[in-house]
């Protein structure tokens, strides 16, 4: 595990006063000044209501709200509260009226009817906000509405914060903007967590792939001992506690976690309840007395939510539920803002019991029995639920009405409301601009954003909820029969896809001293990669798991594999050598130097490639060894440790034999993992040019690409020694049948920079589409 060093962000000189701006904010009434005269009283009044969706839990004077005896924890079954169940059913009845609406059309409609819809765009232009997203605006509202930053932190001049489930980092960027624009006098240390967007086994539906901040501040992000970033594992919590042990005081914890519940929106609250539980326990275990906690939740009807809110009310002096104006009014999202933590010592008996039930598979028992929740609390909580239920249902019904048709008068009114909301936001929260030099990332050096082909690839649904549920209910065979997968089946390879993908560059100065070996649990499958088009990888995995080829026996697979696609181009070995010769000639012409001798072409682990045919006058040398082409495409793709170790072993075998100007050809399954991307980076560093040939086979599940490396220019001895040590470590793990594997050895900051990222994207996407095409073509043929 790599150690994170906390680097303070020095701001202005310290002062000893608790800033007045951090005192509790009263509701601000926007006066009818000149700037608001054009809107009129009605528009202004309706706009102000957007900023008043706040409910505070008022504790009874007799201190009745106390945690029960620890012996009462996790002993009873969940028992729902009938009045809250009725509210849930009422809300779902309204939501169900959206089931037949096309998601793209409905999203476009609600984007227009969103009264706060212009705020983000205005802030981007007017205040130079970094990573200005909806989350940025929401957290800025919270910061300006509640005294989140304890006076102690401001008086001592040091602020320490933890941000859970934080990707892409908008809360952090918003807090930075607040501190810099208000000249808050403190040194700020922060650490963040999120599902690791680079971990190959993470679910792409759960992961936020926008890494503009993450890739450029990686040393501040903690992904846990297994490198997944899963906050719902006890190992992550204990590791985080150890990591922050050098923070004297943790003043603020935020948690903005959720995941895609589009498949079952009516049960969103229940689906995310275990995540909220783990986020809360993590906050209570890491936060210092007097600190603040912000937790994103949704509806609060379930027994689990009632218990969680009761726990928080017993753990903090103040608890508020807040829906920012910039949170879409038609969704269930709210933020629970907890102020002045009593400290874990005050609740340690219950907290220790909660630690025993930490994780995805929580015990199915209720945290507290229904009978121990005071009636006075239930009454206040029901008022809270009614308050937000009313606001949400009113918005949905209004959007449904306007969806049927909107008059010019209604359009004009909405536009006025949207313009007014911008003015109210700016005046209410006094948002000020900051200089780019005050950003967390002044100039991005790494990340998905460096790859122009990534934009627009995130999976989006453009169908109705009912249509999506129907698609989910179809078997693989039904999808093939109904033509749902024809988009892949029709993509025939008419030429070498890799012909136009050439990775050139000046020699890297390999900073191998900064490299480190990162180990984690063996990958069960590869579902997530920054180096491949997500939809292609997802569809290929479904094919590999559910298709006839995947489910059939070895003999059936062999017979099916012999049926080639007649419409696809299948280049012979001579074609690949011709491509190689052209690249070598082009490099020679670019350099203007004649080679002192004819370069050699080494072919590694690819015996079928050299069949004695014309090799374009190249001096071809076939290296003996375990053929890499025997590995087949599977759900692990290139994540199989044995494949990775053999690939590295072949490189170590060939490096001593290579002379300046030589070429190298290797078969490659894919390059979706960080480990294999690291090896391609090494090749990029020691060859003048990389390209690939795809396809090289018409057989589904076989090797479908060859990596072409041209113009060897040498590799420093320390790098070769490092790779030898890496190879030994991998061999040891394999021979001991260890549950661990090497996940990475070149820092992600390096792999996510330059043209390498686009080259890997082209390579992996071509391979995934090719394999998917062949599998579906085989499935569509008549069975014999």
- Class by alpha and beta content: alpha/beta
Widest sheet: strand ordering: 1-7-8-6-5-3-4
Report the sheet with the most strands, covering strand number, pairing sense and barrel closure. Answer: 7 strands, mixed
How would you sum up the global shape?
Answer: globular
What is the first-to-last residue Cα distance? Answer: 53 Å
**What are the segments in which pLDDT stays under 50 over at least 5 consecutive residues?**
1-17, 19-34, 458-462, 554-561
Helix tally equals 26
GO molecular function, one term: methyltransferase cap2 activity
Enzyme class: transferase
Active site: 296
EC number: 2.1.1.296
Descriptors for this entry?
784 residues, six-stranded mixed β-sheet, 11% strand, Cap-specific mRNA (nucleoside-2'-O-)-methyltransferase 2, seven-stranded mixed β-sheet, alpha/beta
Topology of helices and strands:
Blueprint: H1 40-50, E1 54-56, E2 76-77, H2 82-95, H3 103-113, H4 119-126, H5 134-145, H6 151-156, E3 158-164, H7 170-181, E4 187-192, H8 234-243, E5 252-255, H9 268-271, H10 273-286, E6 292-297, H11 303-315, E7 316-322, E8 334-341, H12 348-355, E9 365-366, H13 375-403, H14 408-429, H15 465-473, H16 476-481, H17 486-489, E10 503-504, E11 518-521, H18 534-546, H19 548-551, H20 554-561, H21 573-591, E12 600-604, E13 619-623, H22 641-654, E14 663-667, H23 674-686, E15 687-693, E16 706-712, H24 717-735, E17 740-744, H25 748-751, H26 756-780
Parallel strand pairs: 3-4, 3-5, 5-6, 12-13, 12-14
Antiparallel strand pairs: 1-7, 2-9, 6-8, 7-8, 10-15, 11-17, 14-16, 15-16
Protein name: Cap-specific mRNA (nucleoside-2'-O-)-methyltransferase 2
Keywords: Cytoplasm, Methyltransferase, mRNA capping, mRNA processing, Nucleus, S-adenosyl-L-methionine, Transferase
Pfam family, one: FtsJ
């Amino acid at each position: 595990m790599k150690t994170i060093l906390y680097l303070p962000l020095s701001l202005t000189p310290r002062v000893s006063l608790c800033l007045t701006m951090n005192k509790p904010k009263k509701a601000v009434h926007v006066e009818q000044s000149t700037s608001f005269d054009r809107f009129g009283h009605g528009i202004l009044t309706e706009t102000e209501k957007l900023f008043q969706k706040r409910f505070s839990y008022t504790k009874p004077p007799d201190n009745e709200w106390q945690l029960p005896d620890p012996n009462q924890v996790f002993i009873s079954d969940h028992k729902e509260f009938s009045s809250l169940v009725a509210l849930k059913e009422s809300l779902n009845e309204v939501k169900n009226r959206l089931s037949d609406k096309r998601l793209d059309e409905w999203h476009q409609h609600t984007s227009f009817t969103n009264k706060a819809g212009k705020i983000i765009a205005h802030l981007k232009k007017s205040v130079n906000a970094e990573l200005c997203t909806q989350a940025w605006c929401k957290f800025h509202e919270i910061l300006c509405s509640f005294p989140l930053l304890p006076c102690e932190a401001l008086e001592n001049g040091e602020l320490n914060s933890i941000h859970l489930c934080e990707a892409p980092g908008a809360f952090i960027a918003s807090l930075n903007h607040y501190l810099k624009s208000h000249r808050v006098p403190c040194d700020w240390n922060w650490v963040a967590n999120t599902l690791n967007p680079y971990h190959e086994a993470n679910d792409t539906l759960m992961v936020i792939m926008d890494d503009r901040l993450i890739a450029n501040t990686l040393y501040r992000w903690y992904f846990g001992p297994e490198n997944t970033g899963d906050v719902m594992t006890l190992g992550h919590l204990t590791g985080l506690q150890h990591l922050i042990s050098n923070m004297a005081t943790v003043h603020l914890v935020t948690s903005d976690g959720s995941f895609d519940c589009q498949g079952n929106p009516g049960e969103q609250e229940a689906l995310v309840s275990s995540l909220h539980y783990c986020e809360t326990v993590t906050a209570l275990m890491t936060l210092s007395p007097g600190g603040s906690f912000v937790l994103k939740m949704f509806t609060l009807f379930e027994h689990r939510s009632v218990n969680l809110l009761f726990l928080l009310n017993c753990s903090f002096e103040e608890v508020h539920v807040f829906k920012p104006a910039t949170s879409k009014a038609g969704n269930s999202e709210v933020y629970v803002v907890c102020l002045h933590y009593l400290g874990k010592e005050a609740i340690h008996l219950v907290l220790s019991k909660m630690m025993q039930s930490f994780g995805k598979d929580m015990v199915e028992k209720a945290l507290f029995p229904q009978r121990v929740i005071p009636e006075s609390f239930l009454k206040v909580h029901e008022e809270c639920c009614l308050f937000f239920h009313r606001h949400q249902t009113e918005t949905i019904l209004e959007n449904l009405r306007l969806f049927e048709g909107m008059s010019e008068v209604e359009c004009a009114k909405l536009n006025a409301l949207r313009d007014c909301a911008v003015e109210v936001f700016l005046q209410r929260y006094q948002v000020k601009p900051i200089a780019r030099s005050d950003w967390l990332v002044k100039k991005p050096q790494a990340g998905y954003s460096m790859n122009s082909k990534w934009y627009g690839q995130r999976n989006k649904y453009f169908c109705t909820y009912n249509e999506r549920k129907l698609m989910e209910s179809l078997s693989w065979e039904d999808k093939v029969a109904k033509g749902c997968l024809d988009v892949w089946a029709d993509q025939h390879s008419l030429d070498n896809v890799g012909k136009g993908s050439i990775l050139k560059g000046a020699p890297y100065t390999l900073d191998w001293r900064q490299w480190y070996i990162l180990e984690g649990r063996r990958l069960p499958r590869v579902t997530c990669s920054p180096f491949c088009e997500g939809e292609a990888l997802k569809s290929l995995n479904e094919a590999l798991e559910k298709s006839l080829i995947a489910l059939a026996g070895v003999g059936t697979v062999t017979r099916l594999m012999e049926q080639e696609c007649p419409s696809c181009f299948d280049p012979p070995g001579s074609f690949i050598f011709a491509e190689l010769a052209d690249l070598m000639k082009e490099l020679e012409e670019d350099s203007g130097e004649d080679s002192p001798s004819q370069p050699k072409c080494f072919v590694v682990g690819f015996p079928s490639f050299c069949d004695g045919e014309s090799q374009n006058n190249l001096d071809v040398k076939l290296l003996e060894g375990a053929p890499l082409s025997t590995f087949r495409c599977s759900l692990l793709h290139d994540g199989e440790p044995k494949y990775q170790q053999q690939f590295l072993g072949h490189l170590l075998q060939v490096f001593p034999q290579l002379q300046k100007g030589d070429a190298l050809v290797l078969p490659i399954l894919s390059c979706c993992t960080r480990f294999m991307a690291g090896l391609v980076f090494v090749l990029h560093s020691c060859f003048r040019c990389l390209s690939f040939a795809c396809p090289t086979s018409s057989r589904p599940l076989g090797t479908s690409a060859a990596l072409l490396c041209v113009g060897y220019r040498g590799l420093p001895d320390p790098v070769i020694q490092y790779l030898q040590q890496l190879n030994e470590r991998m061999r040891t793990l394999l021979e001991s049948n260890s549950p661990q594997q090497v996940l990475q050895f070149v820092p992600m900051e390096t792999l996510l920079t330059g043209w390498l990222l686009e080259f890997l994207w082209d390579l992996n996407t071509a391979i995934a589409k090719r394999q998917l095409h062949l599998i579906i073509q085989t499935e569509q043929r008549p069975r014999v």
